[in-house]
Design goal:
The chain is mainly α and 343 residues long. The chain has helices at 4-15, 22-55, 57-64, 72-95, 102-122, 125-128, 134-149, 152-162, 166-190, 196-202, 204-217, 227-237, 256-260, 269-296, 301-304, 314-322. It is elongated.
């Protein structure tokens, strides 16, 4: 890989961008708008849960121990809650890349369990805060912390980056994070004006909201090579969405909404394989041409900084040498850089 500083300088010199690329923003909302509903909506709902759970933790302890004036029991229950949360978080780290469980299912189950664990005591509050049922109340509260960590709190910030291609990732992630902070702000303000039982009435519905946006609009990126998001974006920028046939539009990596809209109909493994061969061929030919220019003394260091030289095996090089000139060029990745519409 060439010097990173040279590559960055070349990219800045080439793009001459001082603000947002309006074409990219328009395409973001056109093709990824529902995904933004999922990532921003789920992060918002989760932060209402997460900060709400922490903010009225002292009131929860007061319900369990109404006549206690010592701070030690409060510390003990806080410690238990933290321990339960950590177990959930570490379990999430073990299963988040598991294809049988993965990101979307983890977030969905976490929201569902939080919804149930807050809904049950909400409509039976007096029963569960009574002495004979207080242990059940404790169990539900601690389990809500566990499933919040083993669920949306471990997933929302991750998928808010993975479901978008790199050129729009920072903006989309920032919008989603800002929505999450609005959820935290809502919890911190609202909970000052409602009593403990009312908090249990209010909180569950944010779990339901998180479930709905996850089911409808969130794709599952578990096992997806994120380079495919970049390839698909190149086709979208070239106004050729239907010509992309890669795994990023495989139905298992699309949301329910996208499948309903028919995005998955473009997936074609054989056509995608042929396109990738042509893209590899173009990379090899460009690399071969740069090496020839370097030998001839016509090497442009600034232009070369924009490229990364891949390491090709002798078999690959031999194959491309024998089939030179047979490519179809049916990919926007093979087009001149002007195709990227950088403004």
């Amino acid at each position: 890989m060439k010097s990173a500083s040279k590559q960055l300088a070349a990219a800045k010199k080439k793009s001459k961008v001082t603000g947002y690329d309006t074409d990219s923003l328009k395409l973001t909302f056109t093709y990824f708008g529902p995904r933004m509903i999922a990532t921003a909506g789920a992060w918002f709902a989760n932060d209402v849960f997460f900060y709400g759970n922490k903010l009225f933790q002292s009131e929860f302890i007061h319900v369990i121990l109404p006549d206690n004036d010592s701070i030690m029991p409060g510390w003990l229950y806080n410690l238990i809650n933290v321990g339960v949360s950590l177990v959930g978080y570490y379990l999430a780290s073990l299963l988040i890349d598991n294809k049988l469980y993965g990101r979307k299912r983890m977030q969905l189950i976490g929201f569902f369990m939080d919804f149930i664990l807050f809904l049950i005591p909400a409509f039976n509050f007096e029963r569960y805060k009574s002495l004979e049922h207080i242990n059940e109340f404790q169990t539900m509260y601690f389990l809500s912390s566990f499933f919040n960590q083993f669920g949306p709190n471990a997933v929302t910030f991750l998928v808010a980056a993975e479901v978008y291609p790199t050129p729009i990732r920072a903006t989309a992630h920032g919008v989603s994070a800002a929505a999450g902070k609005l959820g935290a702000l809502l919890a911190s303000v609202l909970y000052n004006y409602i009593d403990t039982q009312m908090k249990f009435y209010v909180v569950p519905w944010f779990g339901l909201m998180g479930m709905l946006v996850t089911i409808l609009f969130l794709p599952d990126t578990t096992g997806l090579d994120l380079k495919e998001q970049e390839r698909r974006w190149q086709f979208i920028r070239a106004c050729r969405e239907a010509d992309y046939h890669g795994v990023a539009v495989h139905p298992k990596h699309l949301s329910w909404w996208e499948r309903w809209r028919g995005v998955g109909k473009y997936y074609d493994a054989e056509a995608d394989y042929k396109q990738k061969i042509e893209e590899m061929r173009a990379d090899w030919e460009a690399s071969d041409a740069r090496k020839a220019d370097e030998k001839a003394g016509a090497w442009d260091e600034d232009a070369d900084a924009e490229h990364e030289d891949s390491v090709w095996s002798s078999d690959v090089g031999t194959f491309f040498e024998k089939t030179r000139g047979t490519g179809t060029g049916n990919s926007p990745l093979l087009a001149p850089k002007e195709k990227e519409f950088v403004e």
